[in-house]
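ok so for the tutorial part 2 we go from a plain amino acid sequence to predicted structure tokens. step 1 is just haveing the sequence, like this:
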Amino acid sequence: RMLWVGMEPGGLVLRGLAGQKLNEIGRVNLAEGDAVTHKIAFDALHNRAGAGPVGICLPSEQVLRREVTLPLAAAENLPQVLGFELGRQTPFTASQAYYDQRLLREDRGANRLHVLLGVASKTIVDQSLSRLTDWGITPQAIVVSDELESTGECLDLLPPGLRPKPSRARYWLYAAMAGVTLALLAVLLAIPLWKKREVVIALHPVLTQAQRQAEAVDELKREQERLLAEYNFSTEH
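step 2 — the prediction. this is what the tokens look like for a chain of 237 residues:
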């Protein structure tokens, strides 16, 4: 349901994703008319597309992506480490760009972490952010168009402070999932105990019969010992 806004020279394009393909829904000509006209035109497009949540889609040429190698220990504080590395790894500093990262692989033998770093100029991104926020739209994500049309995970260049917070419904969903997991675990632990109980119940008559037979054998043994004692007593006299 996400709708994706792309900024082009003199205009804004609204697209929807279907089958891993971005399809154009409509355009707003920013070179003509005033701010009110632009907002009315965008709202019309947005409503026609279903008024879903909106994200910003950047063309690939506006995002610098490169693989960065870091010590394995950097995984504990990866965003902050990359913030310090930004000036060395890219033409931007942390104050000039928005960035995100995706873990590619860990090489524990070489004590190295391989990370995909994506960086976009704040000047470019802020233009799109400012335009949408002026229209009362809160972007949910900022992604790169070619990643959006792929099957993999997308980098999200939306600043962490602007990212949407998980809804209470999601917290309740997580709690419900945890409850179901605990219930299933309890069932799995109870099944062996229940089976053992059934085995004990099934064996109870057998054990009772065996106990009776053992008592009968003991009784015969005591009777035999009594008769032998009487016989030995009579032969001695």
